[in-house]
Hints:
The strands form eight sheets. Strands 2-1-3-4-5 form a five-stranded parallel beta sheet, with helices on both faces. A five-stranded parallel beta sheet has the order 8-11-12-13-14. Strands 17-19-18 form a three-stranded antiparallel beta sheet. The chain has three domains: 2-234, Response regulator (Rossmann fold), CATH 3.40.50.2300; 262-511, Alpha-Beta Horseshoe (pyruvate-formate lyase- activating enzyme); 516-600, Orthogonal Bundle (Arc Repressor Mutant, subunit A). The protein is 40% helix and 16% strand.
Amino acid sequence: xxxxxxxxxxxxxxxxxxxxxxxxxxxxxxxxxxxxxxxxxxxxxxxxxxxxxxxxxxxxxxxxxxxxxxxxxxxxxxxxxxxxxxxxxxxxxxxxxxxxxxxxxxxxxxxxxxxxxxxxxxxxxxxxxxxxxxxxxxxxxxxxxxxxxxxxxxxxxxxxxxxxxxxxxxxxxxxxxxxxxxxxxxxxxxxxxxxxxxxxxxxxxxxxxxxxxxxxxxxxxxxxxxxxxxxxxxxxxxxxxxxxxxxxxxxxxxxxxxxxxxxxxxxxxxxxxxxxxxxxxxxxxxxxxxxxxxxxxxxxxxxxxxxxxxxxxxxxxxxxxxxxxxxxxxxxxxxxxxxxxxxxxxxxxxxxxxxxxxxxxxxxxxxxxxxxxxxxxxxxxxxxxxxxxxxxxxxxxxxxxxxxxxxxxxxxxxxxxxxxxxxxxxxxxxxxxxxxxxxxxxxxxxxxxxxxxxxxxxxxxxxxxxxxxxxxxxxxxxxxxxxxxxxxxxxxxxxxxxxxxxxxxxxxxxxxxxxxxxxxxxxxxxxxxxxxxxxxxxxxxxxxxxxxxxxxxxxxxxxxxxxxxxxxxxxxxxxxxxxxxxxxxxxxxxxxxxxxxxxxxxxxxxxxxxxxxxx
Length: 615
């Protein structure tokens, strides 16, 4: 059997498809007689735009539509006219949507005229490989491009078997995708390691796939959806990805000169925190929350092999959260390897300074710590299991260990109040030397999140997000099963407080690049050099218990706990004096206060900062 694996726009241009890399190995392992080929449609689309637009639409424009506009559905919309055989389909809807929200759509509008001829070219190339089965992987805005190509493939070759799988097919989304698109023969819902080879066996035998868990298939004109399994794929059955065909496509691509390619690896699936305390807003793990991880030795062996084979040192891990065992059995191996790797990792925001130091020593340059908020009560509403003081400490330690930190400041949680945000907003100017969030964003209602599955948490009214009106020509009851994002009645803060928060975050972002707040030890003195935006440059000098207090607050403490530590160190400080000093340190912006706890803000490190456009 000839199996052709496809990833369509808008997969990131700088990354190979982990899904294709895994499926390639899975099929060849289970069915060594099959021929497995790949089609990297994202690269093809960027190449197509570059060539046919005369260089006007470049890979940077691809990113602007495919990644930056993900919550407006622009990438799917570019191809919806192809899916519905109408170049004008959804144009008016998109213009109305964009006008109401201030969304820039000119780039998407410029791309759309090329979509139909691109899909035709894709179909020609895919069919030239002579496939028996074409399998699409779809995540986020890959649905419509995948459906458009699947429809064209079946139009040209009706006997071809078309299969869809991926995150967009999880749970009810997969069945809705199947029953509304008769040109899709099968949809694999959930993990594919066991299901896809089982489906191929049925196709070989010509039998109905009634025993493949989660699979959607056609029984005549009736769309069947097999019951999904609770069984998760064991780490031992998750292969190392094969990126050879991606490398060949990249090497031949004119897009290569515009991007910095990275490898993608997977150490773990699920979320160990979410198994116990599912963050209320998060739907990322879908129906597979159970945490599983490869042993650190095996993960390192996979990375070592991929780095040697592809000569790339940038490695992105897709784990939703790092396995804490990796601080013992994986990261030390990376440190000892001598490889000059650049790792990218998602972590929990309550890591210790020692753990963050190990990440830095291992070559980790970029982390996503899921900070989300700098107010402890709001963090409690999220069920994050961390305090604001720990989050601020994490931001500070990222500076100390030259870790780039990506995070969003989220708001809009049921039960939050203006009083939860006022003290945070007032203190944000003091944090300008620490890495700012991407912005202040109102949360959206995500399928599979506790906010979605339990209306009692505050989002009782919901409807498919407005952006899907310019993406799909389907009734709302079908969209309610198909889509991932939903609109609901706004919760939490709004009005002047929301505006103040957004303005304060924007000011933080604007002032960060040139701001510093640095510790320096000078004999018995502890110096703090304040070079933060919006403040006059000054150097503060601390000695005795004042210096000791500022150092003790690096870990974050209450005033009574600080008083006990100072006394244990031989500093007899009257309570009133300590209270007055803490108040003065707060006025100077040297400490951050969250309720009764304080954490010091100066850093010991001063990493090189590049302008955002150069990063």
